[in-house]
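Example record

One chain of 360 residues, shown exactly as stored in the release files.
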Amino acid sequence: MNSSKDLTLVLAMFGRKPFSKRFFQYLKLIKCPYPIIFADGNADGYGQCLVEQFSDSLDITHIEHKQTEKFIHYYEMQVMALDAVKTPYSMLCDNDDFIFIPGIEKLINFMKDNNDYISAGSPIALFQIDSYTDNPYGKKASWHHVYAHLREKEPLETWEDQAKATFLDFQPSFYNIFKREVLLQIWQEIHDLNFTDLSLMEFYYQLRAPTFGKQLDDKSLVHYLRQFGAGTYHQHYDYGAVMVQQDAPRDIRLISEEIGKIIEEIQPNHGESVKNVILDSYATHLNHFLPHAVLRYRFVKLYKLKQNLLGIWSRMTLFQSLFFRFKEYKLKRVLKRNLLDEIHADFLKEMERVKNFLQN
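Predicted structure tokens for this chain:
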């Protein structure tokens, strides 16, 4: 029994149009039972063409909201999309990702049986195409790894521990299944706070969610599939330029103030402590992250050597094939150890279906 009346998928699109078409093609292939809110930030007619192409097989509601101003128009679009959701639960999707219905069904049933939980998810499984390209299709696709499972339940025992773990032991809940009203309120607050940096917006999202109630990360399930190599970091994002153009210091101080106020209401005499933990933990996060992100600027010759070696690697097809087979073998061993038997059997079939779909 599917939960088509319980869950709505929310896809926000801006750019990367071939991935949006791939997303809908895959949902059609798996006979997606859930309604979809398609928030179209391009608003140039392409999204409407996609809706017309797939409307016979998918339940799509199309919302256009042209994005011309970062990032307030994106936040406005997310609020519009989530406000249009009619089901009890909603789940955000990116257009370069896929879903796994049996895992989603298990999570929905958990949420229905445990009303004190406001969201539920699982470690996300990642695939790659043609040695980490950002292409929607390719000659060779393979499965790579799953995100680390760091904790089953949130919030942690203290709000200080929760804040610290958010920055230093990051476990994403962005693609969890959420109670509709909770996810909508989070995005309304994001819109009102108008963060200038998307990574800090996501930290607010992560910190705010467990203040509404419990969250589950169930390692015995898989519900969401991501393409490894198609994200911001893998496309040589210039973090230095981003930090200059945007206002990260303002954003992190705003996060600490807002979350501190919320925690003070939940647990008096802890708001100031949580505020300080947020600031200190983000500073530690930057101390770990930034040196790695700017290595190519500090060590230009070594970076060029690395690029040359990667060029050689790209021509060593036999070694690449062996490497990716080994990665997939390791992943399958992890999945066999962690997943429920019925989920494991279904997901092995899905792994092959995804590869065949991507290689067409």
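Notes: Residues 271-293 form the longest helix (23 residues).
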